[in-house]
Specification:
- The structure is a single chain.
- It contains eleven helices and ten strands.
- By secondary structure, it is an alpha/beta fold.
- Strands 5, 6, 7, 8, 9 and 10 form a six-stranded mixed beta sheet that branches.
- The protein is globular.
């Protein structure tokens, strides 16, 4: 009798874990955007409180990005949990979920390069590799096209993350890349994601353009013209301030590419 031996290079448990995910819990809303762009949003079975993407609004809420409800997630029996890498508190939650036997994948999203890599990884996890590759190429062409629309000296831009306890976007923030692609330069040169600074330091920077996000971190930004302490700013004098949606500018997902396009048009229409 001829006996055929199947030699496995990985344990059966590992092979099973690498099967395309069918039930996904998303702990960071940008991953919902990416999965929707890949046509895989129907695999999502739960969302966080702050995930405002229309495609998941009927799904159960399992807490927040930083404080998910472990019991609720386990009860949904997901075969994949997606979490944002880079924050110690979020990583602790990931470990707690892994101890429950769940597969947790943490992905970085600090730049557009990270976005492309995340899309490809999610393509692998959902058996949509070809779509992910094509999507990444489309996104890159769009970014290159936006960057090519302008030339000359870049405008000096300040991005307000929060006020009145002033918090700005630093060089490691996706916002800095959005500004650069749109034809500006972030006046904050610190290589951090977020930077605290005083009004005196902001006045010394004197940016050409003042952007302020509106969202959970900055619910009701006061118009720049109404801030007496900042009245001497060049951006205040010239009326070059703009309120932008937090979810588009501070969340490194597909919407950030559209944010580049809109900002470039506004910056160069204004000048």
């Amino acid at each position: 009798m001829l006996i055929t031996l199947l030699i496995l290079t990985k344990p059966l448990s590992v092979l099973a874990a690498e099967a395309p995910a069918q039930r996904i819990v998303v702990l960071y809303a940008a991953f919902t955007e990416i999965l929707e762009a890949l046509g895989q949003e129907k695999r999502i079975v739960a969302r966080t409180k702050s995930d405002t993407n229309a495609c998941v609004q009927t799904l159960p809420v399992i807490g927040t990005h930083m404080r998910p409800n472990i019991e609720s997630i386990v009860a949904l029996k997901p075969d994949l949990v997606l979490q944002l890498a880079g924050r110690s508190e979020a990583s602790l939650q990931s470990e707690a979920l892994r101890k429950q036997g769940l597969r947790v994948v943490e992905l970085e999203l600090d730049s557009f390069a990270d976005l492309m890599l995340a899309a490809k990884r999610l393509g692998e996890l959902t058996d949509a590799k070809a779509r992910a590759q094509k999507l990444s190429e489309i996104w890159q062409r769009k970014l290159d096209g936006i960057r090519s629309r302008h030339s000359g000296t870049p405008l000096r831009v300040f991005f307000e993350v929060r006020s009145p306890n002033l918090l700005a976007a630093g060089q490691k923030n996706i916002v800095s890349e959005i500004i650069a692609i749109a034809g500006g330069v972030n006046v904050i040169v610190t290589k951090k994601k977020l930077v605290r600074l005083s009004e005196e330091e902001l006045l010394a920077l004197d940016p050409d353009v003042y952007l302020m996000q509106q969202g959970p971190m900055n619910p009701s930004p006061q118009p720049l013209a109404a801030r007496k302490n900042l009245a001497s700013l060049r951006a205040a004098h010239n009326g070059q301030s703009l309120v932008v949606p937090e979810e588009d500018f501070s969340r490194p997902g597909p919407k950030a590419i559209e944010a580049c396009d809109r900002l470039e048009r506004w910056l160069h229409a204004a000048h």
